[in-house]
Amino acid sequence: MIITALILSLSLLIGGPVGAAAPAASGQTVQRLNRAPINTELLKVQLPRPKEEKLDNGLTVLFLPHRKVPTMHATLWVKAGALWEPKDHPGLAQFTAEMLKEGTASRTSSQLATEIEEMGASLETGAAFGKSIAQASASGMAEDADKILGLLADVTLKPSFPQDELDKYKKRRESALQEQRSQARFLGLEALYRALYGDFPAAVAAPTSESIQRTTPAALRQFHQQRWAPESSILGIAGDLTPEQAMALARKHFGSWKRSDGAAAALPPLAAPKPASVIIIDRPGSVQTDLFAGGLALRRDDPDYIPLVVANRILGGEASARLFMNLREEKGYAYGAYSNFDAELYPGLSRAWAAVRSEVTEPALRDMLAEIRRLGEETVPAAELEEAKRSLVASFAFSLEQPSTLVNYWLTTRYYGLPADYWDRYPENVAAVDAAKVRAMAQRYWNRETIQLVAVGDAEKIKKAVSGFGTVQVLDIEGRPKP
Fold it and tell me: How many CB atoms lie within 10 A of CB 402?
């Protein structure tokens, strides 16, 4: 079935202006659905192909010209995320990435901040838990590209990890951890990760206070030297530059980056899914329950990725999806109810969640699971399926206006080994998802035999409410069993 997309026929050409639209086909039909005219033509997309070069040190460089505005953006993906940190030092990857901006061999933290501010530029670094990559990105005016890429290279290649800045960082991180552990949603997700991943590195959702305090400049330097390596990294650049300028700047600032022998480590095997279980994270005195239902999803390069995107959009991907309409609009149990999933080098996490009043814990969880079950048992109505696909393609089309997004699309393509025409075919592959495929996704990635349920709330109030869904284990907010 042809997707009812938007009034847009987009063709992005190599070197052409990003987001330039091709003329609409003559004689195309327009239907009026509700109040908005809907074009029934399939969105045609051809993303601009980046100029690609591999430097002598193994660094892959991608460049996309964007001449509409005099700006530039650069993003570096490094295989130095939390998945590769030592098991006995949770958070080390994040600490290393976030400390890059706190001083280099030639600049203090204050000097870096001043230079960035004077150019009206930005520079960000980070590494999220559960991810295989760390990132560093910089944006600014194209006329400052040499300086901006110089700063990006300085912080990523030559960080100094000064003790005084680390001391301040540790205080900030300790405070952030305390705030994190006071949030029911974080506690629920942490329990879900632990239940699904066990000893696999993705089970870790946050550092510990002990791991923060034992972090030293030497530990940061060692992890940086081992994991921040050019041969396992990709640099994406977009902006008002010529390919020759961009590649020359990449070679100038990143060509001296030394290879590392420690960047080729493999992930450990992921254990088979555990049987379904129910976990309560006890928060005495809580007047609400944060509910979670989760299972293992898929790798980013799995052919099921796009069908699962469509299925998730129907289940809980937006405020018009089934979970929200049931738990919020129809029943008034929650302010919101949603679902999403992750996909990485390993099978990510699929999850649904809602925060509800304690007294409606049982019916809310029952309805959440009923919607998951219904998606896997019943045929999705054609109109609902088409609306979900139209929404996804519309969001994709509008995202193409941002050069930073285009860079990320190509980084994703290269890093996860996706086909070169993956994004060109994204609209047609979304359109090809039928009701049978949606049903199969729900059955495959929301398996009743292995689904893990987590309820964060006052155990005395909610234990009876969730006991009908399986054997209940009660844990404190640190994940320790309670009697």
Answer: 15
Q: Are 338 and 320 in contact (CB under 8 A)?
A: no
pLDDT for the residue 31: 43
Report pLDDT for 124.
98
* Cα gap 361→288, rounded to integer Å: 8
CA distances from 389 to 209, 339, 349, 428 (A): 44, 16, 22, 10
Do 127 and 102 contact (CB within 8 A), yes or no? no
**Structural domains of the chain, with CATH:** 51-254 (3.30.830.10), 277-475 (3.30.830.10)
Contact 310, 433 (CB under 8 A): yes
Chain Cα centroid distance, residue 128: 9
Q: How many CB atoms lie within 10 A of CB 480?
A: 7
Choice among 19-33, 193-207, 319-333, 392-406 with the minimum mean pLDDT: 19-33
Beta pairing partners, 237: 63, 74
Question: What distance in Å separates the CA atoms of residue 3 and residue 40, rounded to the nearest whole number?
Answer: 6
- C-alpha distances (whole Å) from 482 to each of 215, 465, 477 are 31, 18, 10
* Three-class secondary structure assignment of the chain: CCCCCCCCCECCCCCCCCCCECCCCCCCCEEEECCEEEECCCCCCCCCCCEEEECCCCCEEEEEECCCCCEEEEEEEECCCHHHCCCCCCCHHHHHHHHHHHEECCCEHHHHHHHHHHHCCEEEEECCCCCCCEEEEEEEEHHHHHHHHHHHHHHHHCECCCHHHHHHHHHHHHHHHHHHCCCHHHHHHHHHHHHHHCCCHHHCCCCCHHHHHCCCHHHHHHHHHHHCCHHHEEEEEEECCCHHHHHHHHHHHHCCCCCCCCCCCCCCCCCCCCCCEEEEEECCCCCEEEEEEEEECEECCCCCHHHHHHHHHHHCCCCCCHHHHHHHHHCCCEEEEEEEECEECCCCEEEEEEEEEHHHHHHHHHHHHHHHHHHHHCCCCHHHHHHHHHHHHHHHHHHCCCHHHHHHHHHHHHHHCCCCCCCCCHHHHHHCCCHHHHHHHHHHHCCCCCCEEEEEECHHHHHHHHHHHCCEEEECCCCCECC
* Residues 220-234, mean pLDDT to the nearest whole number: 97
In whole numbers, what is the pLDDT of the chain averaged over residues? 92
**Angle in degrees, CA 101, 103, 105, rounded to 5:** 130
Lowest mean pLDDT among 21-25, 208-212, 251-255, 289-293: 21-25
